[in-house]
């Protein structure tokens, strides 16, 4: 045996070490893979040796190979062997390898628990350190749970080296095992004031990282951090704290106010650029959060902008980049102050660094106004010409389009200019964004009616030059614009000057080289053009000319019929047949133009992309319900599908039929129009279809300001946007002069009026520039009462979500970390070790179940606790902004209860108390689960376990039964029907706020699809004679109820109302709120801000309101089966309560209708003057009612899964009934 | 939080890589390759930040790099890190390596991967949980056959 070992080690002397391996790889450059596979074979041999040094060497080599991309997971067990070596050099290699290749899926990782625990409690700080370092990389939920307590103990280690690492690794532990956060938090907080700066900064880091994800839970730490910020000199720590404040301020504007001063001081005093930059960033965040409440922080903004300017002007590219980055943040709220630095931004566009150019482009996006758009785009266009490399040029192109089209073309005053810019862009070579340009052309032409004539002339010119655009294959991307050009020319052919010429251009043989989808559009629009020409010719009584056109069509169309593209071929052959038919009719001198153009009658209106999805499901329609009862037995199953299939076939046949003549087509079209007009669910143009059609020929009515004077509308050849720039300038100049003249007159009359404007000859504000065209942008259509957008904003798998834990609530006994004291002993024997995993697993199971229970409890308690925290913070925030505020007021109230368990955990390190704690723990479980008190880890227990499980599963099933019951309720039941009731007129909309300008009414609806979300529909009615625009709704979120804002916006951003209100018009906007607890009613304060514009100018207005979220609004009308209802009542886990209201004269029928309508209930069953009703909350609480009518009184008995909710509901119901 | 630290040479050969999120070996190599392509295209005198965040995690992430002689030092971080802070951290890291190996060059990293790993360990352990308190690196590690002197760090500018 010994001999063998000696022999082995002699052999091993010739093993490669890491250096040899590296050298070898470098010497085998040609056949590296082969050499490495040979080395891996050797390593496998080495790993079979008993000698730990040999193994360590092998593992060391493997680690290197892993870095080169070789899978070494097969050696996981050997790595563990090396990790458990007693010598530090080997241990270190083992941990390094483990940290590189272990992850949650590594199955052997559970074997390491005891080894790691041993290392953690090793007397050598380096053993502990290396274990902590390694663990941070591969900690799993199991490891986190089992080791949390050990690591927590290390947080109080004597050596700062260990303390620091322990603090840091706690973050990973929290992520994997969120239950540990609450018990560990008090100690983590202590570490914020650790004497060692390293430990302190580690704690700051961990808390900052936690707070970044769930800032509201850490608001109470603000005073402590504030103290640290004003006292610390460590820049690393300061940066972190300042970043953290940046995350906290949106939640608490008062905090921002307090911060401004010290931050400004730091900005002035610090020499470290990184710190300066972070300060500026946080000041910006503060200003954003304050922007709604306090307008006067212009000094701070100026300071920020000024400092950023210094950064941007710096020669260091990094600073320049960051400066631009921060600038874009200011831009969002204070565009004016950034716009002053336009020169700088434009200068950055010339920078050689692409990252910087892109940042500058981003900034430009927000800097444009009506005034400077033309100038900026001109500059960008010149860059487009200069830019080398298609990526950057494409980026420029998309930015130009973004900038111009933002906010519904808000900044464009002259669409002729825009169209010519777009046309100019088509000259770009090799761009990939032809489709973008095309989309813009289509969008503008469709939505801006006044521009159609111009657009058509430009597009026909473009079609004429199609050979230029689509000549080389390289330019494939750009030929997409021909798609738009062809469509616009066809659809708006009435505006064409020379339709014949365009028609010919579209029928050129060259066209067949275009991509299929473009050809298809060509074919379709050729017919439209053809129809227009026919009409023209017939009106002019030139039948021969009309026949010529037909002849042209018949001659040229076959080239499309031969197309390889199916779509083109099909359309072309259809059209060809049609034209041939027309030719026959024409030969008989039958006027056809009328009928042909009827093919394309009617106007297409833009429809919002999400319109279809947002069509609300009409009341009474249950999409999940069976239309026919599902077949009861298997026999009928065979028959039914057949019937369905047969029907479907019939339908197919029908669809193919329409090859009839135009007359028939026209007749059908008429019929369909009629049908659509009568169909409430067909998406019609917003006011009424008839009105729109009347408008159609009235393009002339739209005042196109005297442009005709100088603009040649028919531009031959290339349009040049510059031309329009000049014209636009002239126009503005004229306008300005005119205005001044008017003003002078006015001033002469009333000399006091508006002194501000005096002498503002050349400083016209944005609003003063009137658009050239009285552009009426047809807004995209949306169905009425569109549902709120259904984008999910939260990822359910987000690991940080689990850490959203209230930290201020006192610790419950059941929340202590699992302490497994006996396994800490070094003397423990191997058989015992093997036992351990079994018990561990059991505990794990228990834990999981407990978890759910706890969470519920937590939710309940939260409400109360939040108030407390709020009060403390209030106190701190309301005190005068002294730099060092004693943190005492915050900590005092929950200090004692928090420290107690924390201290417990420390003491638990000593044996006896540890045991005590253990005894306590199972005790808790017993309380929670009502389980047998026996807890010896034995085989016997396993059986017991099963039994218990069964028992428990029975218990558990009960609540679960509810679910299928309500699912079943989705089946058609007559009981849910309310429609038959002759309802008195009711409206659930109630007044929100009102002033001279606007009246707001609102209604709140929950949705079952998204639990914890409600939709607030606000109807805004313009009561003034002003035009209301830029409406924005901002709401002060409470901890419980939050407004869902578009991604990327902060808590204090308002949500823009997606429409503008002309005088006397009302419209409805919807806002989604997320609610956490629904058991009590809540109120939220908010403000509607808007710009009211009338002839005399525009003013900023505000309207404050208070949203009242009643508990009723969290209920969603859910139909319920009577037997499911009965089961629900039997289940016995609903709490009960009742109210009685006297003096009611209303009929029972109407009374029920009223409850159904106002409180979102559905009638389950009704017998005489007694009815059972059901509803469900958005969080799944069941609410059952029994309503009985006596003489002049009504009693309501309610049962609900949540007593508090029921209480609030009945109160609200009582109020409703009292009005009857 | 630092998501990954990558060191590779001018040809994209990985010299030291550390990922703080588990990725398969293939993905790791893929990330290194793509990062190299992004970084190597850039001129010397452009800024050191890159929004190549799609490689690891979401758009929240940034690549922050420095180029020393034949080596690229790339840190992938999320928005909780200060960009300039990380640049300084890279500087400190390189200076640490320099002191450890006395004029560090690429070959040192190649032949002493294990030691480089250890020298980086403080930075890495720290970054593992996103800390940057380098001033607290133990001044002298001297255990068994490894002896690494950690230099006095330059004061943070």
UniProtKB/TrEMBL annotation, chain A:
**Keyword Oxidoreductase found:** no
Query: What SMART domains does the entry give?
Result: BLVR
Q: InterPro entries per the record?
A: AP3_complex_dsu, AP3D_dom_metazoa, ARM-like, ARM-type_fold, Clathrin/coatomer_adapt-like_N, Mu_AP3
Subcellular localization is given as: Cytoplasm; Golgi apparatus membrane
Q: Which residue range or ranges hold the AP-3 complex subunit delta domain?
A: 660-808
User: Taking the first listed entry, what is the main subcellular location of this protein, grouped into a coarse class?
Assistant: cytoplasm
Q: Where is the composition biased (Pro residues)?
A: 883-899
Q: Name one Pfam family in it.
A: Mu_AP3
Membrane topology per record: Peripheral membrane protein
Note the SUPFAM superfamilies from the entry: ARM repeat (SSF48371)
Q: What is this protein called?
A: AP-3 complex subunit delta-1
Q: Tell me what organism the protein belongs to.
A: Enhydra lutris kenyoni
UniProtKB/TrEMBL annotation, chain B:
Keywords, A to Z, come to: Cytoplasmic vesicle, Golgi apparatus, Membrane, Protein transport, Transport
Q: Mind telling me which Gene3D superfamilies this protein's record contains?
A: 3.30.450.60
Q: Which residues form a coiled coil?
A: none
Q: Does the keyword Transport apply?
A: yes
InterPro entries registered for this protein in UniProt = AP_complex_ssu (IPR016635), AP_mu_sigma_su (IPR022775), APS3 (IPR027155), Clathrin_sm-chain_CS (IPR000804), Longin-like_dom_sf (IPR011012)
Note the topology in the membrane: Peripheral membrane protein
Domain AP complex mu/sigma subunit span(s) in chain numbering: 1-116
> Where does the UniProt annotation locate this protein?
Cytoplasmic vesicle membrane; Golgi apparatus
Is Transport among the key words of this record?
yes
Q: Which PANTHER family match?
A: ADAPTOR COMPLEXES SMALL SUBUNIT FAMILY (PTHR11753)
Role noted for this protein: Part of the AP-3 complex, an adaptor-related complex which is not clathrin-associated. The complex is associated with the Golgi region as well as more peripheral structures. It facilitates the budding of vesicles from the Golgi membrane and may be directly involved in trafficking to lysosomes. In concert with the BLOC-1 complex, AP-3 is required to target cargos into vesicles assembled at cell bodies for delivery into neurites and nerve terminals.
Report the sequence similarity comment from the record: Belongs to the adaptor complexes small subunit family.
Q: What is this protein called?
A: AP-3 complex subunit sigma-1 isoform X4
Which source organism? Enhydra lutris kenyoni (northern sea otter)
Taxonomically, what lineage is the organism? Eukaryota, Metazoa, Chordata, Craniata, Vertebrata
